[in-house]
Amino acid sequence: MHHRRLGPRLSVSALGLGCMPMSGNSAGNYGAIDEREAIDTIRRAIDLGVTFFDTAEAYGPCANEALLGRAVAGRRDALVLATKYSMRYDESGRQVGGFDGGPANARRSCEAALRRLGTGHIDLFYLHRVDPNVPIEESVGGMAELVAEGKVLHLGLSEAAPDTIRRAHAVHPIAALQSEYSLWERAVEDDILPVTRELGIGFVPFSPLGRGFLTGSFASRGDLSDGDYRLSDPRYAEGNFDRNLALVARVRQVAVRHGTSPARVALAWLLAQGEDIVPIPGAKRRVTLEDSMAAVDLRLSAADLAELDDAAPVGVAAGDRYQPDGMRMVRL
Questions:
Q1: Is the pLDDT of residue 159 over 90?
Q2: Confidence (pTM)
Q3: Domains of the chain by range and CATH?
């Protein structure tokens, strides 16, 4: 496994593991959940050299942090654990409020995450979504207090607008920005990546495989099990689904030439976009994990990259990233 840096000081594996599919999120699950297989998947990732693990209080909710904590027990020291806060929960994992980016909620969430993860510090603590009712300076100021106390080592933001990133970074150095970035979601190239690169902030693409779509695993909506939250994803919707299959076909053509999988091609394309890019593909099974992590050894030619760029211009995907409520919380 190769390594990269987020910001000037945080070294991580070139691919991290997104743990959300192991517990789902507030919107629902990626199909059936098998906790034993999930824990085995995390441990297999460690064996493969993965050091970067991404979770959040909202995943489960709370259950995902606890699962990750159980899985890394006894092996935590060499790992980088990242989690996120933005909503209010009680100790049972019941949501008791909406978005709250205030310092008090940051402290509550951090201290609860430390207990669930079974650790003395969080390596990377993100503001999961910017709270429109709390100045970003106040949110980051509260997070910075946790750094001063040694409870958190590095700070991150998720889905923030360029001006918000600048204002946050002026309060305390931001090591990483997390946002959606993939062959079918390239909007960050226009205005976000130039800012993170100017400021020396690492970029962590979530959903680098289009919530599984770019793996080529789905031929129709019928391939998704009942209760899978992707059935409500606009890009998986009737009409949009079939239009988006055209991009998957182009990715598959490159994969066939290399004797590899579409997932590896999609991840290798992302890795080729810059040394500051650290994708976190999600996985809940070892077989999926192993396929994704092999992307670090796939070298795409200049011709391959040009072909994929041509197949996937900005705006290529049919449908929005989220339903309207979700879209309102992006780029604040």
A1: yes
A2: 0.96
A3: 3-327 (3.20.20.100)
